[in-house]
């Protein structure tokens, strides 16, 4: 059975700181659908919004990048019947990572000096552009030890190829990868085989960094405008 996927939900990272058409001659008929024992619905607390609020220009470091605090959201996946699912992330603001060149996935390793989750070179998404300037970037992770599936603690797994997955345990770092589409799923503690579940919950961590102070015209408002879409992928 091929894996099937479904749009999940949007995760927004935001804040404000003072800082010739021709008609086609043919048309396709498509017949699609699926038979599935259950469907899954994901949710994020706070409407999926990480809001860093209104910040003063003094927030920006005098030199280098400014790393903002990590914030967390509650996430949940509720299924109508036990189902095996994974999650992947799609970048909604491509080509906007400050200080880095994005890979094929649309994400990039954070530049030197922007240590996300306390680690160098964590893969990040872009925070959009404001007044023509790349604002920054942010990492997304599943907080270690927070995930419960049907009342039991579970391990989080990752794969670097969601189309043909090979699963391994995930402990630290980002849900994002620069050169591939990373997928995340869950397994019984100490194992690496995805499990079916009905209800799963945990914590999603997001941490952002801002571009160097010299990049901004601080006489104008600077908007943080990060957007990522989390998608569910149904596993066989």
Query: What is the distance, rounded to the nearest whole angstrom, between the alpha carbons of the first and last residues?
Result: 6 Å
Order of helices and strands: EEEEEEEEEEEEEEEEE
Q: Over the alpha carbons, how many angstroms does the gyration radius reach?
A: 19 Å
Question: Count of helices?
Answer: 0
Structural class: mainly beta
Give the percentage of residues in beta strands. Answer: over 45%
User: What does the main sheet amount to?
Assistant: 15 strands, mixed
| Principal-axes shape call | globular
Oligomer: single chain
Q: Count the strands?
A: 17
Q: Any low-confidence stretches, pLDDT <50, length ≥5?
A: none
Helical percent range? under 10%
What's the domain count? 1
Average pLDDT, all residues: 89
Report on this structure.
The chain is an all-beta fold. The protein has one domain. It has no helices and 17 strands. It has a 15-stranded mixed β-sheet that branches. It has a two-stranded antiparallel sheet with strand order 9-10. The chain starts with a strand and ends with a strand.
Q: What's the arrangement of secondary structure elements?
A:
Elements: E1 4-17, E2 40-44, E3 49-55, E4 66-67, E5 71-83, E6 85-91, E7 108-109, E8 123-126, E9 129-130, E10 133-134, E11 136-142, E12 148-149, E13 152-159, E14 168-169, E15 183-188, E16 197-210, E17 222-234
